[in-house]
Amino acid sequence: MKRKRITLIIVVVLLLVTAGLYFYYGFLFKEARNIAWEVPDFSITATKLSSDYNSNPQKADSLYLNKTIEITGEITRQTDSVLILENTVFCLFTQKTNEKLINKSVTVKGKCIGYDELFQEIKLDQCTINKQNN
Question: What residue ranges are annotated as transmembrane (predicted)?
Answer without folding.
Answer: 6-25
